[in-house]
Amino acid sequence: MLIHSASQLLTLPGGPQRGRELGRLGIIPNGAVLVRGGKIAAVGSTAELRADFPNEPALDAGGKVVMPGFVDPHTHLVWAGDRAAEFEMRLEGKTYLEIMAAGGGIVSTVRATRQASLETLKDQTRARMRSLLRHGTTTAEAKTGYGLETQSELHQMQVLLELDAEGGLELVPTFLGAHAIPQETKDNPQAFTDQVVSEMLPALHAWWQAHGGQRPLPYVDVFCETGAFSLEQSRQILTAAKALGFPLKIHADEFDNLGGASLAAELGAASADHLVKTSAADIAALARSNTVAVALPCTPFGLADPHYTPARAILEADGLLAVASDINPGTAWCESMQFVIALACRYLRLTPAQAVAAATINAAAAVGRAERVGSLELGKQADLLILSVDDYRHLGYRFGTNLVQTVIKRGQILPA
Ligand SMILES: N=CN[C@@H](CCC(=O)O)C(=O)O
Ligand SMILES: [Zn+2]
């Protein structure tokens, strides 16, 4: 299939974009892309590709933007129920950490999720996945983390693998058994940390040998935060995971600066996420590493908190920056990377070009898939979008409407 007559074909060439390089879109005006066998077979001008492939079935992009599908590198997609009541409590003055300390927050979603059957969890998660796809996300990282005990966490992992196997939105699984301290051990975070290390991670490893098929091991993540896991406990969990061969991620500096970003850099984690209260020393450590800094602007927006990730400082330091939705039932039920881009332009002070690169090729790097998705380059997976606009800067500029007209996943046009 030859997709032609794109006003702007955004190719995002040359791999992940560090520091001031961020925003290299590789725009081909009046561009075209040849898709064969679910992969990108050629990119160029419409005139060139039409001359070279005259008999190829054609799809007219109609003078609109064509670009890679968004990669959402941080989601909590699997949960049951909702927390609308907590939203209201926050508006009335309670903080997220206060609600969490009083037995609400993450553990209240844990109660609902533990009770839900596999089919219920799949149905509720599938509905969100479809919405992500309609908004242009073609690959998403997805975390467990609403079980907080081995069987329930593995149940959520099973949901993720089964939904991924259905096709459509492609999922990159992450194990987040260390998402919060469960009610059972709420006065003893160290006991739960020890349980994650000695029971959950080995069980996950064994489960993966039986159920993971050919897939690489999933990421292991931890919520390093006041009221969740301390820096030392996070180190214990991530070090144990690394020893078992798992690739790593961390939630760091959402509310307090505990040093989780430096820990991520030291352990070679794929990403460190949130990074709102990150110190200059942590930023420098990240910038010296290949750990991607993942900003989640929907989260402070969702909490009506004025503090956002210091994205410009990360870029000045020559760090790798990506953006993600952080979709979750507590702080940020947002299915749209377009909205993430709109927030990133305003609150992270990124240009639309920087935000687009942070939501595609750099986001792919944050989930270890930069060789396969996130750009339109020869041999990569044909995951692409046709927008309803002729200038990519409408991403960021406009918000609250879906500017994605057509989604193509592995070369297949998805039903609208
Ligand atoms: N901060 C920790 N985890 C999620 C929130 C999850 C929830 O509140 O249910 C986050 O990344 O924002
Ligand atoms: Zn998260």
Which stretches of 5+ consecutive residues score pLDDT under 50? Answer: none
Distance between the amino and carboxyl termini:
19 Å
Structural class: alpha/beta
Radius of gyration from the alpha-carbon trace, in angstroms: 21 Å
> Number of domains in the coordinates?
2
Function: Catalyzes the hydrolytic cleavage of the carbon-nitrogen bond in imidazolone-5-propanoate to yield N-formimidoyl-L-glutamate. It is the third step in the universal histidine degradation pathway.
Protein name: Imidazolonepropionase
Subcellular location: Cytoplasm
Cofactor: Zn(2+); Fe(3+)
Secondary-structure topology with pairs:
Elements (H helix, E strand, L loop, with lengths): L1 E9 L16 E10 L2 E7 H7 L5 E3 L4 E4 L1 E3 L11 H8 L4 H6 L4 H10 L2 H17 L2 E7 L6 H16 L4 E9 L10 H23 L7 E6 L6 H13 L5 E4 L7 H8 L3 E4 L5 H8 L4 E4 L2 H5 L8 H6 L4 E3 L13 H11 L4 H7 L2 H6 L17 E4 L6 H4 L6 E6 L2 E2 L3
Parallel strand pairs: 1-4, 1-5, 6-7, 7-8, 8-9, 9-10, 10-11, 11-12, 12-13
Antiparallel strand pairs: 1-2, 2-3, 5-14, 14-15, 15-16
Helix pairs in contact: 5-6, 7-8, 9-10
The structure holds N-(iminomethyl)-L-glutamic acid and zinc ion (ZN).
The site of zinc ion has 4 residues, from loops.
Protein name: Imidazolonepropionase
Subcellular location: Cytoplasm
Main location: cytoplasm
